[in-house]
């Protein structure tokens, strides 16, 4: 009898580790990163064998010397990552983060240029209006989804284009903002810029602090509040949430608006940042291109398993290897190599579920085989159950 | 030496970390009806999948007529003459009966179908065994009973001699059940061998020659039906004594809790109304059961009552308050509890922890939240109390992910949540579906306890035994109309079956008495 109890305890401890959702998504992200780097290395070997090792070294370690810039470039994709991940928690695929991001940029720019305000609050108002711009662009697909059941993927892709062309048009038509000789807007006045963190030689600013804080706040909202409870329940099983009387439509609209707000903030953080890299911020160039930050956000959210804290780390990581990747040009590689690596990482993290269930299965079966003879089986029930589920779904 | 047609000897099938079949032996004699009995998850389907070549066992062998055979896929099984009627029919809905029967073994000349030949064979078979089907009817338009007969013909058409019936009576009316059992007996007389998977003990006692019992993946034993009793079988299956008779006092109905007047609900599938001008009421302290064959408007009626669907006309009153236009949350808050038909689809968020599921209807109440923040301490306390009171078993208590729990315990969690919530009316839709006898006993007792606590209970059930044993009053629904109101003490399964199939209805005065 005692023997059995011991086993029971052992079993629980073991399960606590492998069944912990955080652990398994972390493990699978690590595996994805590893495979991505290996694949990148192979591509580099094929492209230019003698430089591959040096190039790989830059990718892995290059970011270390430029940590400030790592955080600077992480800020916008962290926010778009949250925009995608947050909506994904509710089962919505917000592919419109780019449009929301662009609207956020425009709103922030407009306030920065056109509104006369005391210096101390100008940048804050600019940030908040960026959020409003993004929210607006998330809200509309949300309304379409809730009331007309139009798929949010379609509307938000359309809103990417509508937002981008609209912003380009409005900027080109505005004499105060746009300077036709440089085909871009003027540089923002100093007082509407986000304060720098004052670390010399880098562009890191308060934006990253805000972004991380927002990530933590979302984590708290998702874990601790009734809104988060409803949101996740709806994402997992919308029928059960309806059965429990949750207001599905309101929640869809709210989620999309909040997600849009995050992307809008990302746009504001990007455009209002003080930067020594010319053209990377404080000015907007209307070139009829969808902002890549939105799509980077999808990558960030996938790698972070849509978990707010995971997204903080994955955004910083992706920014980190991107910085390193630009250095590979020193040994003759095109900087696109790093996009290949990131693509492979995302590809593998899409397999996350399969990989980590496989991994924990291997560990479990090892463990079980040793103790096989002692185990009192109460588990066949669960497997047969889940098999039943599958057949039900098939029908 | 007995003449076994199929022997499965020492079959062990392991899934990673789990032994689904542990050294199981099943020997099927030629010309017998052999029942395979076991609770959900006992390993019945795994064993049949092994026999069908869907799984390869780790240990053990299968013999046919004493010779070892290898069954690597369902085609091998078919070649050995093994056929199966699945619980959920595998028919192509938009094909005719005939097309379904020949599917996969179509007689053809140079690629052109030769249907007339096939039709002749099908008609012959259906006449020989009394399996009446219309070969040219489309499957989507025929009754469940006829679909099942089409499935049986499919096996006969392939000249199968070993026939597996997986819970064949689950969806049938009593008359149809009688028929199918007769047909099975006929097959056995013909020399065909039948494996009959079920958990209905009455049917085993009626038709089977022998019965093999599995429990938790292990082989418990094989018994001759002649020498055994229902009680003994159930004890073998569950491992403890089960009482079949539901013990309850006479009901003492009091004031009306739910009153429904002229309720009409449109159908989502077809143009007609799914529920047609239905009126009834339920009083405090009684269990009213809505009996009927699946798909006669029960789901729509319940959805209209709970607010999941909109009624097109009529009124619903709960405790004299008109709730027809209230949303789900408001109905729930004003005293309606609902054990849904599909516990995975509606009843639970499977990815959530047990404690989170236990507050699914209450997380917004003051006790569990303050300013939008969930009071997790209270949730934990509440969950622990329900787990103890309702005996919900799980691996890690309140933090167990519900998906990993067994079906019976998942249902217990829903029942605990709905019964513990403040309520005047409990709507329970097929609350025992897919559960084993032990869990069924538990559910019935909970329903009766709720009734005795002075609540009104509305039970929707497809199981006749449940209808007759648990309810105080029976309403029969047929094609969206309530065609009869019966007293369970005075009616018989046969009479109930006539109402359920629309052959009989009590009209006018009688039906109005209940209002």
From TrEMBL, chain A:
<feature type="transmembrane region" description="Helical">
    <location>
        <begin position="121"/>
        <end position="140"/>
    </location>
</feature>
<feature type="compositionally biased region" description="Basic and acidic residues">
    <location>
        <begin position="382"/>
        <end position="395"/>
    </location>
</feature>
<feature type="transmembrane region" description="Helical">
    <location>
        <begin position="340"/>
        <end position="359"/>
    </location>
</feature>
<feature type="transmembrane region" description="Helical">
    <location>
        <begin position="204"/>
        <end position="222"/>
    </location>
</feature>
<feature type="transmembrane region" description="Helical">
    <location>
        <begin position="147"/>
        <end position="167"/>
    </location>
</feature>
<feature type="transmembrane region" description="Helical">
    <location>
        <begin position="21"/>
        <end position="47"/>
    </location>
</feature>
<keyword id="KW-0472">Membrane</keyword>
<protein>
    <submittedName>
        <fullName>Branched-chain amino acid transport system / permease component</fullName>
    </submittedName>
</protein>
<feature type="region of interest" description="Disordered">
    <location>
        <begin position="374"/>
        <end position="395"/>
    </location>
</feature>
<feature type="transmembrane region" description="Helical">
    <location>
        <begin position="297"/>
        <end position="320"/>
    </location>
</feature>
<dbReference type="InterPro" id="IPR001851">
    <property type="entry name" value="ABC_transp_permease"/>
</dbReference>
<feature type="transmembrane region" description="Helical">
    <location>
        <begin position="95"/>
        <end position="115"/>
    </location>
</feature>
<feature type="transmembrane region" description="Helical">
    <location>
        <begin position="252"/>
        <end position="277"/>
    </location>
</feature>
<keyword id="KW-0812">Transmembrane</keyword>
<keyword id="KW-1133">Transmembrane helix</keyword>
<dbReference type="GO" id="GO:0022857">
    <property type="term" value="F:transmembrane transporter activity"/>
</dbReference>
<dbReference type="Pfam" id="PF02653">
    <property type="entry name" value="BPD_transp_2"/>
</dbReference>
<dbReference type="GO" id="GO:0005886">
    <property type="term" value="C:plasma membrane"/>
</dbReference>
<keyword id="KW-1003">Cell membrane</keyword>
<feature type="transmembrane region" description="Helical">
    <location>
        <begin position="70"/>
        <end position="88"/>
    </location>
</feature>
TrEMBL record, chain B:
<dbReference type="GO" id="GO:0005524">
    <property type="term" value="F:ATP binding"/>
</dbReference>
<keyword id="KW-0067">ATP-binding</keyword>
<protein>
    <submittedName>
        <fullName>Galactose/methyl galactoside import ATP-binding protein MglA</fullName>
        <ecNumber>3.6.3.17</ecNumber>
    </submittedName>
</protein>
<keyword id="KW-1278">Translocase</keyword>
<dbReference type="InterPro" id="IPR017871">
    <property type="entry name" value="ABC_transporter-like_CS"/>
</dbReference>
<dbReference type="InterPro" id="IPR003439">
    <property type="entry name" value="ABC_transporter-like_ATP-bd"/>
</dbReference>
<keyword id="KW-0547">Nucleotide-binding</keyword>
<keyword id="KW-0677">Repeat</keyword>
<dbReference type="InterPro" id="IPR050107">
    <property type="entry name" value="ABC_carbohydrate_import_ATPase"/>
</dbReference>
<feature type="domain" description="ABC transporter">
    <location>
        <begin position="6"/>
        <end position="241"/>
    </location>
</feature>
<keyword id="KW-1003">Cell membrane</keyword>
<keyword id="KW-0378">Hydrolase</keyword>
<feature type="domain" description="ABC transporter">
    <location>
        <begin position="258"/>
        <end position="504"/>
    </location>
</feature>
<dbReference type="GO" id="GO:0016887">
    <property type="term" value="F:ATP hydrolysis activity"/>
</dbReference>
<dbReference type="InterPro" id="IPR003593">
    <property type="entry name" value="AAA+_ATPase"/>
</dbReference>
<dbReference type="Pfam" id="PF00005">
    <property type="entry name" value="ABC_tran"/>
</dbReference>
<keyword id="KW-0813">Transport</keyword>
<dbReference type="GO" id="GO:0005886">
    <property type="term" value="C:plasma membrane"/>
</dbReference>
<keyword id="KW-0472">Membrane</keyword>
<dbReference type="InterPro" id="IPR027417">
    <property type="entry name" value="P-loop_NTPase"/>
</dbReference>
